[in-house]
Amino acid sequence: MKTPSDRLLDYLLQFGSLNQQQTELIRNSVQVKTLRKGEFFLQAGQVAREIGFITGGVFRVLYYDRAGNEVTRYFVEENQFIVDLNSYTNHLPTSEYIEALTDCELVIFSRRAMETLSQTILVWDAIIQKITAKALSDKVYKISLMMPGDARSRYEFFLEKFPNLANRVPLQYIASYIGITKSSLSRIRREMDR
User: Would you say 59 and 98 are in contact if contact means Cβ atoms under 8 Å apart?
Assistant: First the structure.
């Protein structure tokens, strides 16, 4: 059975080559962290100081709009990195929350570990750039395709793009993500089940 560090390395190797010495340095630079359902990886007002790679579980990124309504921006699941990039890069307080929707396991890079890896592994920055570019591209694609269309088509799109999340994420968070009310989503699901 693969360890969390093994799963991280399998992911990193999709974006560049690393020798055994480099992979051992990465293994020794990270720590495994668990969060229980409902706990936060990051809360509004905090400055992001670490980057997580999810090896188990689902997170949601949310914020509160001007009226005080909770809005789900997106979900992040296994084999993805999680961080508020603007907060982390610019040392600014975040306006978002990153909440564990299930019990979660992550491999954590501290800021110091990232700096050490950047200074020690020649290809590290290139690997991280490729991962960041892919993550941003995926996020823009999912958001841009989500917004047009009626409520039912947005929910169908959600099911198509996130087949593993529909049964792992509470209904009200899915409704918030696709921009409809929980009662509208319940009605759509009933109609689809007929």
Answer: yes
Are 62 and 70 within 8 A, CB to CB? yes
Tens of pLDDT along 57-114?
999 999 998 998 888 888 889 999 999 989 999 999 999 999 999 999 999 999 999 9
- Cβ atoms of 72 and 173 closer than 8 Å: yes
Give CA–CA dist 168/162, Å, rounded.
10
pTM (2 decimals)? 0.87
Handedness of CA 32, 61, 178, 137 (dihedral sign): negative
Total domains in the chain come to: 1
Q: Print the domain residue range for 94.
A: 4-121
For residue 23, is it within any domain? yes
Q: Tell me the CATH number at 27.
A: 2.60.120.10
Instruction: Write the single-letter amino acid at 184.
Output: S
Mean pLDDT of 140-152: 70
